[in-house]
Amino acid sequence: MKRDSRLSGILHVLLHMAEHREPVTSEVLARAMNTNPVVIRRIMAGLREQGYVRSEKGHGGGWALACDLSRITLRDIYDAIGQPALLAMGNRTETPGCLVEQAVNAALGAAFDDAEARLLARFGEVTLAMLSEDFHRRFAVHGGAHDLETAHAP
Q1: 86 touches 119 (CB < 8 A)
Q2: Is 92 exposed, middle or buried (0-12, 13-18, 19+ CB in 10 A)?
Q3: pTM of the model as a whole
Q4: Which of 46, 56, 135, 137 gives the lowest tally of CB atoms within 10 Å of its CB?
């Protein structure tokens, strides 16, 4: 089953960007994410509209964070990318005629709703600053130089 990894990828890119004082080009971000710069530009354009990143043109230009990491939550980024489905499971049919299937749907639907609400609440509690702090703790344990292309520890 193919999972939607956009949230994870975007968080990854944003945390890499946080490690740089200068704007970072789409090409550098794309190399770090093993993707095409066009994909990065498309993602960043959406985040720019939400006020999370800004673009700078010309020599030395690129993408930069537009607000403090402590003000951005996982929920903010999840919302900014269009709230993709959180759970891969679902009901066999949405409007069943069978009473047994209606009972199954009601039970599963309540459980799915509860799981999604808890997950979204947790997303709202976790800031990008918290993720950055976790990265820095891990980095301190591993030691070594960090840049967009060497931060991927085995």
Answers
A1: yes
A2: exposed
A3: 0.82
A4: 137
